[in-house]
Amino acid sequence: DMAEPIQQLTRNNNPQERQTIPFTLIQRKEKLGDLLYEKRQYGKAKWACIKMKEKQYEQSICLGFMKLMRYICEQNSSGLYLGITIPIVTIVHTNESQSEMTRSVTVAYYLPEVLQDEPPHPFDSDIIIEEWPSTIVYSR
């Protein structure tokens, strides 16, 4: 099922073709010279998002990512490979009291700059194009 998207990604797996999402660095946490994480602020932008709720958190992330890869690799209204932007963001959801993580996660792909004004529509109805306000992201 994923053979074609993986082949497409492999054909396009040139690091120069990966677009880093523009951000403002807020904080950088290191330990003994190794980067632990960065706290970044991303500007208002459109993202392709999918919410998953599998039995295990890791399954939700993996399946969400695979669905997004299909969208990126031609299963969209343009019929074109959209290009990779990094990072792919995972949002972990918590219960109402914010005391526990739930199984629900959102996996999100920043649409490249050239697609921000008119993003291609996904063929998968589970994928939604959302405009996010300025957003704080922790990146490893």
Automatic annotation (TrEMBL):
GO terms for molecular function: heme binding. InterPro entries: Reg_factor_effector_dom_sf, SOUL_heme-bd. Belongs to the HEBP family. This is HEBP1 protein. It comes from Ibidorhyncha struthersii.
